[in-house]
Every structure is written in structure tokens, then in C-alpha cells.
Amino acid sequence: IIGDDVPVFEEEIVDEPFGPYTVVAPIDTGINVYHNHFIMNESYPQSLLDGLNVTMICDITTEGSWQERYEADKEDCWDLISPSDIVWFKGTRIIGTSPDNGTDIPILDDPQDGHGTAVTGAVLDANPEAVIFFVEGFSDAAVLAAANQPLVDIITTSFGPIGSVPVPGIEDATKVAVVQNKKIHAGAADNSPSPAVQDSTAGPPWSIGVSGYAEEGDDQKETMSGSYPDIAADWTQILPNHDDIDGYHETSGTSFATPRTAGLLSKIILTLRFDYNDFSSGADPVLRSGFMIQGDGMNISNDHLRDALNLSAWYPSSSTWDPLSGTMPISPVAPCSQVGWGVVNESNVQPIIDHLRGDTEMSQRPSDVVMCMEANQAIREAYWT
Fold this sequence. Notes:
Layout: E1 23-28, H1 46-51, E2 56-58, H2 66-74, E3 86-89, E4 94-97, H3 115-126, E5 131-136, H4 140-147, E6 154-157, H5 171-180, E7 184-188, E8 208-216, E9 219-223, E10 231-234, E11 236-240, E12 248-252, H6 254-275, E13 293-295, E14 298-300, H7 302-312, H8 336-339, H9 349-357, H10 367-384
Parallel strand pairs: 1-5, 1-6, 2-3, 4-5, 6-7, 7-8, 8-10
Antiparallel strand pairs: 3-4, 8-9, 11-12, 13-14
């Protein structure tokens, strides 16, 4: 472990050119840093670790079972992590912190709950090159731990009140992240058909509310959840286990549609940073003038990205619905009331990139869709501000 009182030797961390990068912050139950899904062959440069205020480096064990690795690292890593620490798990893409006190093992996923591991797996499935700044917790403090990190681009949260009951949640903290610090926040709508507007995670107008859309083979087919969100995304995915090193499981929910969306957005950001030689991250209002991409004459904000996302979304045909599937078909009348601007998946990525580059401009959405979603935004503004 390398801490504040232990020198970092040059041979251990070499500050070699790292190239453009993007930082995604899942906020959730914890993460299984031992899973092969999160392994990285390269190292993060010292400049990135400094920029994310890393206080410790755990050189985790890479041999043996999950339990054997944990036991080998317990004394020199897990037992030493405090709520104020930000830890890079060397050899992985994971930098993590656990600002909420009371967890048995900071940052590491609960043995009884692998939610955070699966959520982070969904981010990296969409963008395997993302830098992960993982925050364990569900509080405002957990969200602010990412919101106040200048280098974080996107925050993704997959928790909230069951049934989207109208109670306070993390909306104050996500407002700091997006409105004040110019980041992107993707928030999960409920897994029920409850409207997303009043949901404290998906509903605030500064957040991108994500509902789920069921897959069938490689094609998404039916709506599953969260009425009247911003967009709908992949409902069912195969994601890493929390208590072994190489196992996977199939799981479903807006909890995974949301980080998948965050990963796709980070992939777009990363591509554009390569295109325009942008070697930093975040959209800090002071350091980067509030721009997600800032380089070679190109300035792109979170508003530009969100507008392009909305333009790229699409409505599937209701003809694909299977009445025996237990899902709801996409209505040919006002589909926005079900899936907002529409469905977003990998097929949206290149059109968004081309649009933001100015290569190929996407068509404007039909006027009835625009009116429907302008009404959505107005309702959310009235409710949350």
C-alpha cells in the first residue's frame, strides 16, 4: 500500500503518456475488484492519480480464489482503508472510495449483494476504456464525493425509492454535479411502470432518466419500466459476479440500463477527446470552462451531448411485441409517454459522434415528439425547482 506517509517510487508508478481518457463514477453497494472483468494491463499515470486525489494504492493479490485473495490482502489493504481514503487497486481500472461510514469492508462489494459489481460491469461493457471512480454509498455525501471530483465526467446512480414514491433523495447532490460542476448524471427510473418525473434519481430535469427496454436476442423488443423518462436502454445484460473472479450472471433492470447508458456516453466523450487532442477530463467550470470536450477549436458541453442523445434516440415498431412475453408493447400513439425520446444503444454512438463533429447532422425529431418531451421537461422543472 502506498499512503500519504509512504513515498511513491518512480519505478512503481511511471508517469508515461496516457492519452485521452474519460472518468465514470458509479455510486452503489461496492465492487468486486478481484474480478477479471476489471483487470487492466497498463497502469494509471501519477498525474491521473493525483488529479483524483488518490491517497492509497493497494497492489492486490492476483492468484487464488476470491476468498484467498481477500484474505491475503486483508491486513495490508482492506483493514487500513478509512472513509477519507481514495484507493487505486493496482492492476485494475478501479479507483474507489467509501465516504459513508458503517460499511464492514470499505469499497468491496457486500458478500450478500453484488449490485455495484454488476453496475460497474455494465459501464465497462459499453466502454472498456473508461476510468472507474467507484463510490460506495447511497447518500448525498456519496454523490458529492464524485460530483466534487474535477476529473469525473459522468455519474451513474441505480438506486432510489421503490415505486418512485415522491420523497427526497439525492437530487440536491446531483444538481451540484450537473448544474454547478457541469457533469452528466444518468439516473435509473423505477423497475415498475411508475412515472419517472417524480423519481428523485431519474426525475430531476438536470438528470438523464433511464428506463428499461427488454431484449430478445440481439434486438430490443418491449418496454419494461419507468414511464415518461428521458430514454430507455438495455434491460437485460450478462454481468460479472461479486464473489468470484471470473463468473457472470444474467440480470435485468433499470439498474443496469442506466450504467450502460453512462458507458455509451463516455465512449462518445473519449472518441471526441481523441479527435480533438483533449488530454484532460471533467467539465470543471474553472479549469475547463464547463466543457466536456475542449481542444483543437472544439468545445462541447453536457448540454450539447444531451441534445445529441435526444436526437439519436429511436422508437421501435410495436409489431415486434410478443403478447406472451409479459411486457408492454411500444404504443404507436405518444410513445414518448413510455420511453421518452426513445431507445439508446450501441447503434446511437456513431451518429452522435458524427453529429457533434459536424460531419453528418442528425435530423430533428418530429414536432409531436418535441412537444411531448418539452412538456416532460416543463413538468420536471416545475416539480423539482
